[in-house]
Backbone:
């Protein structure tokens, strides 16, 4: 059972009481499992994230920079090169 | 943002010989029974959402034991402002993609808003689509106490159910709380507490959530 934004103490008590696994999001450290939305966890979402999210990567920057680099290569004529071409 | 060491996989063997949910070497798909056994061992486990095959395959290969195809797809994948417009057709398509992209992870498909509130029969019809057409191993729906009739019929029909209580997106919307700035407070905290108490009633008749066929509430 997912416990979303349930006070940590209450979530711990629920977890101890139930024989079924609990999955916390913003519910403290005592639940059996933790869930995060992947776009939040990997930094694709952008903007302010809820307090309970831990961001493990910055995919938004990685992807944006890559897209810009590709665009600049195309505009500047540095992609494709000979090595990317077939004859 | 947090800097992490390079990804590492640490195979774990449990004392009773069964495999750990995370880091185990097994390649067959994880079952609800495996999840129940992890609780017996006191083992914690991670769950991530995914909405497409390629992302799901990354998490599957990373050893994430449970992947949720959440109705958060509304905001995070489909471009809606909330989860409310997400349809069962959309959840079926996304869930099928995640199932196709994974080999080991247990896949939970979310029943979107409006696909189970009418009652147990509607819930069963919707959940059956996710199980038959998408191939998910379990479904999730919001509510504990208020969805207990739906949960009961699904479980009796052989579909494992993960319930969801607390300050869920619809609760936030009712209380006028922003989705991204989700926070505990005011009526929201009261709602969370009320539903948390509902969840604590695991010994009562209705809280069967994350139940598997054959399991009994205690």
Residues:
């Amino acid at each position: 059972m997912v416990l979303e934004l349930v006070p940590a103490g209450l979530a711990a008590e629920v977890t101890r009481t139930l024989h079924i696994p609990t999955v916390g999001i913003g519910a403290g450290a005592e639940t059996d499992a933790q869930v995060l939305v992947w776009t939040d966890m990997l930094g694709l979402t952008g903007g302010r994230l809820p307090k309970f999210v831990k961001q493990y990567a910055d995919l938004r920057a990685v992807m944006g920079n890559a897209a810009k680099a590709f665009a600049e290569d195309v505009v500047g004529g540095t992609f494709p090169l000979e090595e990317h071409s077939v004859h | 943002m947090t800097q992490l060491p390079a990804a590492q996989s640490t195979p774990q063997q449990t004392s009773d010989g069964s495999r750990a949910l995370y880091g185990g070497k097994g390649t067959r798909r994880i079952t609800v029974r495996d999840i129940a056994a992890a609780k017996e061992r006191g083992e914690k486990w991670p769950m991530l959402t995914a909405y497409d095959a390629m992302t799901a395959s990354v998490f599957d290969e990373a050893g994430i034991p449970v992947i949720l195809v959440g109705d958060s797809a509304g905001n995070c994948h489909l471009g809606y402002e909330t989860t409310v417009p997400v349809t069962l057709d959309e959840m079926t398509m996304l869930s099928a993609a995640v199932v196709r992209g994974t080999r080991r992870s247990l896949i939970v498909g979310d029943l979107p808003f409006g696909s189970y509130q009418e009652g147990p029969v509607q819930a069963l019809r919707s959940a059956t689509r996710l199980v038959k057409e998408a191939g998910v191993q379990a479904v999730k729906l919001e509510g504990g106490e208020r969805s207990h009739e739906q949960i009961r019929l699904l479980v009796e029909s052989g579909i494992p159910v993960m319930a969801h209580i607390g300050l869920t997106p619809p609760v936030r919307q009712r209380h006028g709380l922003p989705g991204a700035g989700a926070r505990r407070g005011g009526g929201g905290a009261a709602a969370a507490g009320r539903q948390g108490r509902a969840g604590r009633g695991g010994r009562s008749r209705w809280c069967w959530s994350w139940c598997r066929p054959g399991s009994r509430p205690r």
About this structure: Confidence is low (pLDDT under 50) at residues 7-11, 13-17, 179-218 of chain B.
